[in-house]
């Protein structure tokens, strides 16, 4: 996180420090996270005998950009959680609306899981398209 992100989060915390449990019960927080499918730090320990330096059992293919990744989205509130959504490729505003908001987040809110979806650190132009 940048210093600006840290300042924004601290400001947000100070604005909501007075909230009680019944106020928090109405909020659903959501986030998406990217998970790399292979180790990135390349610190893999290998035990090998003399002469095995380039044996197939002692080598590993190098894959650009960590060998791929996947993104996941979910929401939580004091009363429960949404189902986990696997995001297959780049997520734009339309896909966010069509694959996350409409089929998962909004039904969760309607079932009484919360009354408000809290969108933190969302790009404004993406939000406008997603909620329209």
From TrEMBL:
It comes from the Eukaryota. GO terms for molecular function: nucleic acid binding. Transmembrane segments: none annotated. InterPro entries: RNaseH_sf, Transposase_5. This is Transposase Tc1-like domain-containing protein. It comes from Lates calcarifer.
